[in-house]
C-alpha cells in the first residue's frame, strides 16, 4: 500500500494494489507507480469510470481532459466533453457523482443522475439539477440556476436573477411557512407582521388613511374618495387659533364657539324687517353689521379667539386641521420606519443562514476505511459562515457530523449516517 500526501487540509490518498474487472466498467488505481506519477483512467466504450486522486486523467470521446483533485463516480459521469471544457482549460477539483453527472468548471459539484454544473464553484444536487452560473446552487430534482450567486431551492425551482433565492418558478410557486417575525432591516417578514402593519388577507391595506389621487398630496378624504357614509375623526387636539393658522379645530372648540354665538344672539335686538334693510343691528356696545340675517351675509374681520368662549375664525379652523393631519402623517411615517427596520434585520439573518448552509455543504467526506476532520467556509450577500465536520467511513457505514456558525451570531449543526448494502 502506498500513501500520497496532498496539499490543503492534510487529506491523504491511499493507492491499494488491487485490480477490479467489472462488466462494462474499468477502474485503474496506480498502486505500483511512483507517487509522482499520475493515476490514469481511459474510457472509450466503458460506461462507468471513477477518478479519485490529486490528478486524474480522462480520455473523454475524441478529446483529452486533465482533472486535478476530482472525484467522479457513476455511469458516464465526469467532465463535459466539449472544446471549452477539455484541453488546457480543464476543470479541476470537482466532484461528479451519479449516472451521467457532469461538471465543466473548476471546484464544481454535481451529485445526482444527469446533474450538470457549468458555473465556476457551483453546486447541482438532484436528478437533472443544473447550475449554469458561477457560485450558484441548484438544490432539488430538475432545479436550475442561470444567474450568478443565485440559489434554486426545491424540485423544479428556477433562479434567473443574481444574488437571489428561488423556491419555485413562474409555473410552480411555493409558500415559505413557519417564518419567524423579522427583527433586522434585511430580515424577511411573515404575514402576521404585515397584518399588524395594516395589510389584510386580500393584499389590501386596512385601517390606513391615504392622500387623494394626485402628486401634490393636497387633500385627504376620510373613508376614501367617493365614500357614501361619513366617518369621525376623533382624539383631535385643539387647533391653534391665529390669523395664519391652518390647524383643525375639535368639537370642544366648536361647542365653545356655538355657545358664544348663542349668547350674542340673545344680547342682540331682533327686527322683523327685510334682510335687505340697511338699518343697523346693534348690541349694547356698538353696531356690528348692517342687514345681518345669519344666512346670506358673512361676519368678517373676526379676530383670533383666545378664551374658550371666544369665536374662532377660518384661519384658526384651518390651522387646527393642518396640525392634526401633520400629526397623523408623523405617526404613520414612524410606524413604517419601524417595520422597515425589522424587515432589514430578518433579511440579514436569512443571508447568514444561507452562508451556514453553503459552508456545511462544502465539508468533504472521509473515504472508506478512514476518518476525517474538515472545515469549510461560506458567504452570501455580505454574510459569512464557518463550518467544521467530523466523518468516518467503513465498508458498510458512513457517519458524518457538522456544526456551523455565521456572522449574524446564529449556530446550527447536524448529524447523518448511511448504511451501504
What does this protein look like?
The model is unreliable at 1-50, 52-57 and 59-65 (pLDDT under 50). The chain has 421 residues and is of the alpha/beta class. The strands form 7 sheets. An 8-stranded mixed beta sheet has the order 6-9-11-13-15-17-19-21, with no helix packed on it. It has helices at residues 191-196, 251-267, 314-361; strands at 2-5, 12-15, 21-22, 25-26, 39-42, 51-52, 55-59, 65-68, 71-73, 78-79, 95-97, 102-103, 109-111, 116-117, 123-125, 130-131, 137-139, 144-145, 151-153, 158-159, 165-166, 185-186, 280-282, 287-290, 371-380, 383-393, 397-406, 411-419.
In short:
The protein contains three helices and 28 strands.
Secondary structure: elements and pairs:
Layout: E1 2-5, E2 12-15, E3 21-22, E4 25-26, E5 39-42, E6 51-52, E7 55-59, E8 65-68, E9 71-73, E10 78-79, E11 95-97, E12 102-103, E13 109-111, E14 116-117, E15 123-125, E16 130-131, E17 137-139, E18 144-145, E19 151-153, E20 158-159, E21 165-166, E22 185-186, H1 191-196, H2 251-267, E23 280-282, E24 287-290, H3 314-361, E25 371-380, E26 383-393, E27 397-406, E28 411-419
Parallel strand pairs: 5-7, 9-11, 10-12, 11-13, 12-14, 13-15, 14-16, 15-17, 16-18, 17-19, 18-20, 19-21
Antiparallel strand pairs: 1-2, 3-4, 6-9, 7-8, 23-24, 25-26, 26-27, 27-28
Domain Trimeric autotransporter adhesin YadA-like C-terminal membrane anchor: 364-421
Signal peptide: 1-30
Main location: membrane
